[in-house]
Amino acid sequence: MKEKQSNRINAKVVLCKCPKNKRVYGMRLEEQGGDWVRTWAFKLDEAAAKREGFDTETTRGTMRPTLDYPGCPYCGGTSLNQCKCGKIFCGKAGEATCPWCGTTSTYSPVDRLSVQGGGL
Length: 120
Ligand SMILES: [Zn+2]
Ligand SMILES: [Zn+2]
Prior knowledge:
two-stranded antiparallel ribbon; globular; mainly beta; binds zinc ion
């Protein structure tokens, strides 16, 4: 399934939501030096995302944005919060409401995120 040759890029797309408009978007992750980083983000409609059936395995990494990462296609943000429900969304540390499940809590910066590919 997964090719680990050094001349191949190991990349996947995970889903994120923007709290600004509660819209979903795709985030391209790439494995670099044993870590997963964010290289691209693009608008996605939920129906397409469902059809796509993204990888549901959990990906662990810092998810730091690369220099050319464009930010969220809706709000331009590059910071992420991870809710207790396991989903990720745009936002900085502090109080925020998860656009996936509606839980409001106080978030703190996380070193590493574990995100699931699918699960709309
Ligand atoms: Zn956003
Ligand atoms: Zn949530």
